[in-house]
Amino acid sequence: MKKIILASNNQGKIKEFNAMLSSIYQVVSMQDMQVAEVPETGLTFVENALIKARNASEQSGLPVLADDSGIVIDALGGGSPGIYSARYANCHRDDEANTQKVLTDMKDVPEGERTGRFWCAIVFIKHENDPTPVIIQRSWEGEILRERMGDNGFGYDPIFYLPTRNCTSAELSSVEKNKISHRGRALSALLKTLKKNQWVAH
Question: What is the CATH number of the domain that holds 57?
Answer without folding.
Answer: 3.90.950.10
